[in-house]
Write a structure and sequence with these properties.
The relative contact order is 0.12. The chain contains twelve helices and 14 strands. By secondary structure, the protein is α/β, with parallel strands linked by helices. It binds zinc ion (2 copies). One zinc ion binds next to loops.
Length: 331
């Protein structure tokens, strides 16, 4: 159901079937000259139908879309962009750092799977799980229409629409090219998946990520923490107000994860996969056993990201011998 989230901005949740998040928010920004869409859901018939119905409820249609701002490359935010551009001739905007990933991730997926397989193997994923783990994200290809953006953002631009002048604030971590949109005059922050209220956004490492996505993420949390905001409009879930409080919780959550990983490592020198298997997932010590290959892949990439961060901070040593990357606590 579409609802007004701020003056002239509507929140339109689009369904993500069989996904624990349930829905992704598309935001519709009104102006005299058509609408701007911020994020657009999966390329599925039900997400498309929900978008059409939501727009109709405010007297708008797909052909009124003048610009589609994609806050990051993940299929739930980017998937429908290609179809919508075809139907509306809107301009598609995306950050340069995510735009460069489109080819490898969605067009030459086989090469990416092969690279991921080597990378996951080096981090200890056993042979009998390796293929399934490396291929675990391939199903997502069916949720994405592939299209390169018309406008590449780098950060610092202002996107004017209706009463708003949105500053593009790069906030890498959850994705290298993720950014928030901030209107200083009203204090409206479109936060995408950078700050969510009920979920700690996934921060993982993969073959083409930056060297320390966790540091990127923590820095980007600090960057937005003290912005004067009237409302935070997140990529998933309802709007909220206490930005600084939520940022502090997320920072704490990462600190706890560091401590859990150091404990799980104990005195061993071992791989990220072994460490991941010793952690609590989904609130249970047995959680690891029940993870699907896709969830297990997310768990391993998250674990590697945190261990790499600790290694860069001198808390761990890292060795690579015999084709395996292993970590050990530094004293
Ligand atoms: Zn995301
Ligand atoms: Zn998302």
């Amino acid at each position: 159901m579409i609802e007004q989230a701020a003056p002239g901005i509507y929140r339109l949740p689009l369904p993500l079937l069989d996904n624990p998040l349930g829905s992704v928010n598309a935001y519709v920004v009104e102006s005299d000259n058509g609408i701007m869409l911020v994020d657009c859901g999966w390329d599925t018939p039900d997400a498309y139908a929900a978008l059409v119905a939501g727009l109709a409820a405010i007297g708008r249609a797909i052909t009124d879309i003048r610009a589609i701002v994609v806050t990051h490359i993940h299929p739930d935010h980017f998937g429908l962009a290609a179809r919508l551009v075809t139907e509306s001739h809107a301009l598609e905007l995306m950050h340069r750092r995510d735009a460069v990933l489109i080819g490898g991730r969605y067009e030459e997926a086989e090469g990416m799977v092969a690279a991921m397989e080597r990378w996951l193997g080096a981090h200890g994923v056993p042979d009998d799980e390796l293929r399934a783990t490396a291929e675990a994200s391939l199903w997502m290809l069916s949720l994405v229409g592939i299209r390169k953006p018309d406008v590449l953002l780098t950060g610092g631009e202002t996107i004017n629409r209706g009463a708003y002048a949105f500053e593009v604030i790069p906030t890498p971590g959850h994705s290298d090219g993720l950014f928030c949109l901030y209107d200083r005059a009203s204090g409206v922050l479109l936060a995408s998946d950078h700050v969510l209220q009920h979920v700690s956004p996934h921060v993982g490492m993969h073959v083409r990520s930056s060297a320390d996505p966790v540091q990127d993420y923590l820095d980007a949390l600090r960057l937005v923490r003290d912005l004067p905001v009237s409302v935070v409009l997140p990529g998933h879930g309802a709007p909220f107000h206490d930005l600084a409080g939520r940022v502090d919780e997320l920072v704490r959550r990462h600190d706890e994860r560091f401590a859990e990983m150091l404990r799980a490592l104990g005195d061993d020198e071992t791989t990220a996969y072994t460490v991941a298997g010793r952690l609590v997932w989904r609130g249970s010590a047995e959680g690891w056993r029940d993870l699907t290959p896709f969830q297990r892949r997310m768990a391993v990439t998250e674990t590697v990201a945190h261990l790499e961060h600790l290694a860069r901070r001198g808390r761990l040593s890292r060795s690579s011998a015999g084709g395996f990357v292993r970590y050990r606590r530094a004293d």
